[in-house]
Amino acid sequence: MRGRPPAPAPSVISRAVAEPWARTSHPEVNYMDTTTATETWIRTQDYHMHSNWSDGEGDLYAVLARCRALGLKRFAIADHVEYGHHSDVSPRWSEYRKAVAEVQARAADQGIEMLLGIETGVDSDGNLLAPDEIVHEVDFVICSVHTVRGVPEGLEARDEAAYWQAAREQIEAAIRCEHVDIIGHIEAYLPSEVVRTRGETFDGRRAVEREIAAVHFPLDWYKKIAGLAREHGVAVEIHGMSATPRVEAIRLLRDAGAKVSIGSDGHRLSDIGRVDHAVHVAHALGLTTDDFFVPARREK
Ligand SMILES: [Zn+2]
Ligand SMILES: [Zn+2]
């Protein structure tokens, strides 16, 4: 009796197919480029993610387990510490700080460096919306505009240009703030009624934001931002969840000598480590590790 031929070896499926988070809604972006040393380096880090102490899905141990499963060597939790934010951790800070220290020790046992950052905001004068003692204790500060401050109610609907000018000025004030290290999701997760009402899905909201950014966050403005960011030593985040900023904006930052940073902004565990846009931009612009801001543990 003749034996059956051996079954064919299972085909090698690419990472982009195997990892659902590697997919993107941007058809122009090709995430299938060949791996380079920079890509490998990028994929071992993520400096923007949330735990269930703020509005993330996983507890701190689950976040660590996810990072370890992805092969991250360094990562940071950056939960929300922002006055008025619905999931501000600051009222429970000392309890939180203790919990983080325990998980940092576990991470170190596993050969992983876990940093502690916060994600906060600024008022229209550039004052951080976080208590000083927290700001001085953490390893680094991400500042994101979740609300445009100091503008009259309903301004966006009445005078879109004035509203977005105020948003841009708030970002500039954040860059000038001495405690800020990273500007988070600079042209995504925009504080906008238009995005909320016109965008019916996550991708739909991102599409509306790209239209807004094209008009109100023009490349000419990025030239100014690039100079300011370089002058103040502030990095602009390459935001994984939204695949922003645009490559052309990041080119201007790089050309001015400003740094970029790596952050998924994962709230769900499955979104942690989603840094494909940083990889794409690195390939597109030939970024090297020197172009990235890498946070470090604060000396105690
Ligand atoms: Zn945010
Ligand atoms: Zn965030």
Key attributes of the depicted protein:
alpha/beta; globular; 300 residues; 11% strand; binds zinc ion; TIM Barrel
Largest sheet: 7 strands, parallel
Q: What is the annotated CATH architecture?
A: Alpha-Beta Barrel
Radius of gyration: 20 Å
Q: Average pLDDT value?
A: 90
Quick overview of this protein structure:
This protein has 300 residues and is an alpha/beta fold. Helix content is 40%, strand content 11%.
Notes on the structure:
By secondary structure, the chain is α/β, with parallel strands linked by helices. The chain has a single domain (39-291), classed as Metal-dependent hydrolases (TIM Barrel, Alpha-Beta Barrel). The protein contains twelve helices and seven strands. The protein has helices at 15-18, 37-42, 60-70, 93-109, 132-137, 155-158, 160-176, 193-198, 202-216, 219-232, 247-256, 276-285, and strands at 45-46, 74-80, 113-120, 140-143, 182-183, 235-239, 260-263. Strands 1-2-3-4-5-6-7 form a seven-stranded parallel sheet. Strand 2, helix 4 and strand 3 form a beta-alpha-beta unit. Helix 10 (219-232) runs parallel beside helix 11. The longest helix is centred in the middle third of the chain and has 17 residues, at 93-109. The radius of gyration is 20 Å and the shape is globular. 40% of the residues are buried. Residues 1-29 have low confidence and may be disordered. One zinc ion binds at residues 48, 50, 119, 265.
